[in-house]
Design a protein that fits this description.
The structure holds two protein chains of two kinds. Chain A is an alpha/beta fold. Chain A is built from nine helices and twelve strands. Chain A is globular and about 60 Å long. Helix content of chain B is about 30%, strand content about 30%. The interface between A and B is medium-sized, with 19 and 16 residues.
Chain lengths: ~325, ~80
């Protein structure tokens, strides 16, 4: 079943959603290939999330400026969360106000672009793990990035004004990450969800608890919106949100059963049959999802990051996946 | 300066040794970690970032570890209180 919104093709680049409302999409939506949004009213322009590196963000901003003259000078940027594929390009908007949840700013400081570059630098010595890291992050230019931190922090739900448009910032984390924030624009009947939605790809539960994520899906489903722009994958409808919710509930229940049976998180990840989610991209993320869920169930120690990536590399090698076609059908 | 010898240990042991050593020393003190598992290059900087510690220097010495393994040396400053 296609989860893409029937009105919007899933093609790279700019898509107009409404009057002064746009999305920038990067198929296939896998590791690092994130989406962004542009909201305009009067002479004001707001960007929802920048991209993983400077060249990608500059190309996007040029297209935004071509589409709307107000976007020649971006006034505000909102980072929906701290992962670099949603904020590394902040430095391309030197004069913009950068808005994010406080937890997003804290975790941006803890995970600078140089950290991922360090992973890539180490990759040649890391065998299969290194090859996996290169496949995830190799296409991006982290050396071009100068980290630009948020200068305006929010602590809870907040409404800001852009011209006459109300922009609701709804903190729904910790879920994918601690600072997860939805950007809801009632005037455009649109919500930009950041990585609360991966459409056609496996969500990755870095933080949890998963119930917060399920609640966030319910919050989106209850909104009076026509257009839902995910953090990765095609523009979607309520049906896409319901599928992500279904994934989270299913994986939680399957992992719980295996936790109670005494399996390790890794055994559980390999044991879970992905069923209807099997053709979603990046299915090796089941490793991280089980690790996070097992912590939630009572396992005290969380695996270190190298163990998680090594586990995902092992899973991806054991169960090779064809290019992601689920989202294109 | 305290030196933590985690050579010959696979990840996540180097980080766990570092974590234990940091627990016992005052804020902003400096420690050195020796490791031979290449995955320490991933784990140690990530662990440090998550907890506010600073990697002052990270060096690799080819073949300088036990048995001719590559040796990874991290100088770490514990986070301020």
């Amino acid at each position: 079943m296609s989860l893409a919104h029937p009105k919007f093709a899933y093609t790279k680049g700019l898509h107009q959603i409404g009057d002064g409302a746009y999305a920038w999409l990067q198929p296939d939506g896998g590791w690092g290939w994130s989406n962004s949004g542009l909201i305009v009213d009067d002479d004001q322009a707001l960007v929802v999330d920048t991209l993983f590196d400077v060249p990608l963000t500059q190309a996007m901003l040029a297209a935004y400026a071509d589409a709307e003259s107000a976007a020649k000078q971006v006034n505000k940027v909102i980072n929906t969360h701290h992962n670099g594929d949603h904020c590394n390009g902040n430095c391309c908007c030197p004069d913009a106000q950068i808005i994010a949840h406080r937890a997003t700013a804290e975790h941006m400081a803890a995970e600078p672009p140089a950290l991922v570059q360090g992973f890539l630098d180490a990759a040649p010595e890391l065998g299969d793990l290194g090859k996996y890291i290169e496949s995830c992050f190799g296409p991006f230019d982290f050396k071009s990035v100068t980290q630009k931190m948020p200068d305006t922090l929010i602590d809870g739900d907040t409404t800001i004004k852009l011209g006459d448009k109300d922009i609701h910032l709804l903190h729904v984390g910790p879920a994918h990450t601690p600072g997860d924030t939805l950007v809801h624009v009632p005037a455009d009947r649109t919500v930009y969800t950041g990585d609360i939605l991966f459409i056609g790809g496996h969500p990755i539960i870095w933080e949890g608890p998963v119930q917060n994520w399920i609640d966030a899906c319910d919050k989106i489903i209850a909104m009076d919106v026509e257009t839902i722009v995910p953090g990765h994958g095609p523009i979607t409808t309520r049906a896409g949100v319901e599928e992500v919710r279904h994934y989270l509930v299913t994986i939680r229940n399957e992992a719980r059963r295996r936790y109670e049976a005494g399996m390790t998180y890794k055994e559980a990840a390999f044991d879970i049959a992905l069923g209807v989610f099997d053709d979603w991209g990046d299915r090796e993320r089941i490793i991280v999802n089980c690790a996070t869920l097992f912590h939630e169930f009572g396992v005290q120690e969380r695996p270190e990051i190298a163990e998680l990536f090594a586990g995902m590399a092992e899973y991806a090698t054991a169960r090779p996946q064809a290019p992601n076609t689920a989202i294109l059908s | 300066m305290t030196v933590i010898d985690a050579t010959g240990l696979n990840c996540p042991m180097p980080v766990l040794r570092l974590q234990a050593a940091l627990r016992d020393c005052p804020a902003q003190s400096h420690l050195t970690l020796h490791a031979t598992d290449p995955m320490a290059q991933i784990d140690v900087p990530h662990f440090a970032g998550q907890h506010g510690h600073v990697i002052v220097a990270a060096r690799q010495h080819k073949g300088a570890g036990p048995g001719g393994a590559d040796l990874y040396i991290f100088e770490i400053e514990k986070a301020a209180d």
